[in-house]
Amino acid sequence: MKKILLASRNTDKIQEVVAMLKGTDFELVTLDAFPDVPDVGEPALTFEGNAIIKAMIVGRKTEMLTIADDSGIEVDALGGRPGVFSARYASGTNEDRCRKLLKEIANVPEGERGAQFHAVIALFDPVSEKIRTYEGIQRGRLLREFRGGNGFGYDPIFFSDEMGKTNAEMTQEEKNAVSHRGKALRKALEILRELYPV
Ligand code: IMP
Q: Which residues are annotated as catalytic?
């Protein structure tokens, strides 16, 4: 088994990535194995920038093949906000951030409530010093109320027409099949299998 480090301490994201790597030749290691690695933060203005910074800093420090994800929600009616600032859109809990977003778009009519989850996964190899990035987008629309208890973040207010339910009503398998992170990670896995055959 080839080990890959996920440069994240977000347990929700870790769970999703663990589920996707199950049954592959890759074993996921988390930052729990490296308590001395400090949090890198998200200083860039793009998902790609933040994912690259996280993967390179953590990969260099640990000398492990490293993947990092940066992601967020982009709301059509808000010109793509909160985007890269999704985690910092409001202080408090995920529920507080969802409530603030629903309030901000309260006057946006049905038909104009489109939104997308956007993820970039960066893959860094500390031996070759090569960095690669993979992107995934999940389109949907914002409801006016919360639905479902699974997932995290903005999942309960994000309705997928493709699945006929919110992300928070999906099983982990269903969400991974259609989500931004699932799409980006599948692209990364394809390359990983080519580059590091077992
Ligand atoms: P970060 O990538 O750690 O900066 O976090 C991005 C933020 O975007 C999270 O805190 C969530 O609020 C939101 N987000 C990213 N991916 C998802 C998802 O799959 N579902 C719901 N919210 C998400």
A: 70
C-beta of 47 in contact with ligand 1 (< 6 A): no
State whether residue 128 is helix, strand or coil. Answer: coil
Please tell me the distance from the alpha carbon of residue 98 to that of residue 80, in angstroms, as a whole number.
15
Closest CA to 77 of 142, 139, 138: 142
Closest CA to 161 of 114, 97, 109, 101: 114
Q: What CATH number does the domain located at 2-195 have?
A: 3.90.950.10
- State residue 196's pLDDT score: 86
How far is Cα 38 from Cα 73, in angstroms, rounded to an integer?
26
Query: Which ligand 1 atom is nearest residue 70's CA?
Result: 2
Determine the pLDDT at residue 39. Answer: 86
pLDDT in tens, 3-16: 999 999 889 999 99
Q: In the prediction, which pLDDT does 97 show?
A: 98
What is the Cα–Cα distance from 152 to 142, expressed in whole angstroms?
Answer: 15
What's the burial of 146, exposed, middle or buried (CB within 10 Å: 0-12/13-18/19+)? middle
Pocket test for ligand 1, best of 73, 171, 176, 181 (most atoms within 8 A of CB): 73
Closest among 7, 12, 108 to 59, alpha carbons compared: 7
Phi-psi map region of 112: left, alpha, beta (phi>0 left; psi -120 to 50 alpha): alpha
pLDDT for 197 equals 83
Is the shortest distance between the CB of 86 and ligand 1 below 6 Å? yes
